[in-house]
Q: What sequence folds into this?
């Protein structure tokens, strides 16, 4: 495997290998307190065409923990904002000797183009491409679910996981639906029809328009961010109406099974898709998702350009 | 000896009977068997199929304005190599072909290139803005004698403007060629809306955005009893509406592109913008419906929608890439490949759909004529046995955005006569 572009390119064994590697790397670094020399002398470029402090920092820290040289190239304040094409940026990075490019871009398929258009030979990790995919987020979520609900099992057979909100515009939802279902989970998508892609009935998930009816069967629930620009538009009548039907509040959280966990990929709109009480409550594993994001990003970098070096 | 005089021996006219064709001074003077060559140069046509040269009702030649992508001269070379004798050049140039001055310029440059007849299409609205009618009458009365009007690239989405355009062109037997795309339903659209667009995260272009405009416009054409032509039909639903309209006696004609007959949306999974086109590549079921409709005549013609773009407009990420594909030089081979397994398809039918009918819709009276004595010698010879690999760098077009690169097409154009001028020989331009 040279690139990580889409979770749909991962076999179930690939996914489990990444998750196992993430756990193992965490163990040998004592939870990240020790640096590994694996990527010493290798250059990892973070190429960010969208603002994303969280994801960018997570990739930077992951690369540094593996002793890589990290260059961050963000669209703001760079030649990108002067209209340089993706190709020309790629050629520049090639000339700089990038071994790996972590790219976030608003256009679906941008990471795929960087990997396959023949512009450069580096490994490419997709850190979010428009509405398409965000594979390391889904891997972080899978690692989180595994830690809380399936610590000793290999896969997610028997788990039912709800994904609630704007699936249409969400790369996190896409990657999670395909990844979690490939691990054996039953995925239930809960959303108003205006925020669902057409033909989602053919995807490996079921669809519900009622959050209340779905809650009692869920082992985990993932609340998606409602983008500010979708509110008060034509997708739903108002923020308030959305919250009433699809927001996770204390009363709703109470109808989840006792063991159920609450996830959110961040950043949250507190009071819209999730209330502060639930976000900060006992079921919330949101900060675990952040920690696990770092682990799976280390694992992905390690497996893509770390060669055959032994972890232990 | 008269110029532009030849004897083509042994080819099968329309892929049917073997017939020798005598060309005298640019006119087919005689057809029959065992014609005496006398002192005429003899063209060996045995094993080849002779057809009236093709007519393309929908071509983008990019001149004036984007001569980096194509010129009228380079587009004319691509057209004759593809077997065409006439092309209709779309109006979305810079400046827009919305005045008599611009259409006369296009017409004149086409005459100077001299390889095909270039018939300019006039814009329906000033600047393609969809607000006020362009000077349709002046363009019709110009030296270019414009009969086809289109805002192609944009839909005439205002129903009142569309009604007025349909009414107005009745005075000179014109036709409105509609690019059927509801702009609100296709804001930001990147590919066919379906299961795949959802998975790829690309904004969908729903079939209903095309079908709703066609349904509206056939009713408008019926109401004002005028002639409507639908550009690049791409969905099975559009076919059903056009079939119904024709049954109702509405004067509507329709075209399909070679790429919508052959290619399907699954190619978009590669994120390679060479497959980005408007309307988008559709599903397999749509493709099959389009083939059937072309065979039974519900769709009247094939039109290429030849859309050259410079390299950088496609060598980028999908969202930023331009819509459009080359078509002129590959049209015949692609249509043969696409239609191979469709019942009731023959060389005679192909000739109607790619020559006779487009000439009729565009009122190009000197084109799409039968292979018969007394007719102009616009003739294409096709080798049905010789395959051809598509190599972008070998195309005559200034651009290379063909989706067929590396594909092997089942037949080759070998020779083209334009007004009796033997200008394509052995698949290459003469001289």
A:
């Amino acid at each position: 495997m040279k690139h990580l572009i889409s979770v749909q390119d991962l076999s179930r064994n690939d996914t489990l290998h990444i998750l196992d590697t993430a756990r193992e790397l965490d163990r040998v670094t004592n939870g990240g307190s020790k640096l590994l020399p694996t990527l010493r002398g290798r250059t990892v470029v973070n190429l960010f065409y969208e603002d994303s402090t969280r994801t960018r920092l997570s990739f930077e820290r992951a690369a540094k923990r593996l002793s890589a040289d990290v260059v961050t190239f963000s669209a703001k304040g760079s030649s990108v904002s002067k209209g340089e094409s993706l190709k020309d940026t790629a050629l520049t990075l090639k000339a700089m000797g990038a071994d790996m490019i972590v790219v976030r871009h608003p256009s679906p398929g941008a990471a795929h183009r960087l990997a396959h258009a023949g512009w450069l030979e580096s490994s490419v990790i997709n850190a979010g491409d428009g509405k398409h995919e965000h594979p390391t987020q889904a891997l972080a979520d899978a690692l989180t679910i595994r830690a809380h609900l399936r610590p000793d099992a290999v896969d997610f057979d028997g788990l039912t996981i709800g994904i609630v909100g704007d699936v249409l515009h969400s790369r996190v939802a896409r990657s999670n639906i395909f990844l979690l279902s490939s691990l054996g989970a039953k995925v239930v998508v809960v959303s108003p029809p205006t925020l669902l892609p057409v033909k989602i009935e053919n995807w490996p998930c079921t669809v519900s328009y009622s959050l209340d009816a779905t809650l009692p069967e869920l082992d985990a629930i993932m609340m998606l961010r409602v983008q500010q620009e979708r509110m008060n538009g034509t997708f739903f009548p108002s923020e308030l109406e959305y919250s009433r039907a699809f927001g996770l509040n204390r009363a709703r959280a109470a109808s989840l099974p006792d063991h159920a966990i609450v996830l959110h990929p961040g950043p949250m709109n507190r009071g819209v898709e999730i209330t502060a009480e639930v976000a900060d409550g006992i079921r919330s594993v949101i900060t675990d998702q952040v920690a696990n994001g770092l682990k799976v990003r280390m694992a992905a970098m390690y497996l893509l350009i770390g060669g055959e070096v032994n972890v232990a | 000896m008269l110029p532009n005089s030849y004897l083509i021996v042994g080819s099968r006219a329309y892929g049917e009977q073997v017939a020798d064709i005598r060309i005298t001074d640019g006119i087919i003077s005689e057809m029959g068997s065992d014609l005496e060559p006398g002192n005429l140069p003899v063209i060996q046509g045995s094993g080849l199929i002779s057809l009236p040269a093709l007519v393309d009702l929908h071509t983008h030649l990019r001149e004036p304005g984007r001569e980096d992508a194509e010129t009228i001269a380079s587009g004319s070379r691509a057209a004759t190599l593809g077997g065409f004798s006439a092309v209709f050049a779309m109006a979305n140039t810079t400046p827009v072909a919305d005045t008599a001055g611009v259409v006369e310029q296009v017409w004149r440059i086409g005459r100077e290139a001299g390889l095909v007849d270039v018939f300019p299409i006039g814009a329906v609205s000033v600047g393609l803005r969809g607000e006020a009618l362009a000077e349709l009458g002046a363009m019709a009365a110009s030296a270019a004698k414009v009969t086809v009007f289109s805002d192609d690239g944009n839909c005439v989405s205002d129903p009142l403007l569309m009604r007025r355009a349909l009414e107005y062109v009745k005075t000179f037997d014109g036709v409105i060629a509609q690019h059927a795309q509801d702009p609100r339903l296709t804001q930001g659209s990147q590919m066919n809306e379906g299961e795949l667009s959802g998975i790829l995260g690309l904004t969908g272009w729903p079939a209903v955005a095309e079908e709703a405009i066609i349904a509206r416009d056939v009713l408008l054409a019926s109401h004002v009893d005028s002639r409507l032509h639908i550009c690049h039909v791409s969905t099975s639903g559009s076919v059903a509406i056009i079939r119904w309209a024709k049954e109702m006696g509405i004067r509507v004609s329709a075209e399909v592109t070679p790429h919508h007959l052959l290619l399907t949306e699954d190619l978009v999974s590669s994120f390679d913008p060479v497959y980005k086109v408007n309307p988008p590549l559709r599903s397999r079921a749509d493709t099959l419906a389009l083939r059937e409709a072309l065979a039974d005549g519900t769709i009247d013609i094939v039109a290429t929608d030849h859309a050259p773009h410079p390299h950088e407009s496609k060598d980028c990420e999908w969202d930023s890439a331009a819509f459009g594909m080359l078509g002129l030089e590959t049209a015949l081979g692609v249509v043969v490949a696409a239609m191979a397994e469709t019942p009731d398809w023959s060389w005679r039918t192909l000739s109607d759909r790619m020559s006779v009918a487009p000439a009729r819709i565009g009122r190009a009276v000197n084109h799409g004529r039968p292979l018969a004595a007394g007719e102009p010698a616009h003739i294409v010879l096709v080798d049905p046995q010789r395959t051809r690999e598509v190599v972008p760098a070998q195309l005559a077009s200034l651009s290379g955005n063909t989706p067929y690169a590396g594909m092997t097409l089942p037949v080759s154009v070998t020779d083209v006569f334009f007004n009796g001028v033997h200008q394509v020989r052995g698949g290459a331009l003469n001289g």
Summary: Chain B touches chain A through 23 residues (CB under 8 Å). Chain B has two domains: 6-49+375-429, 53-362.
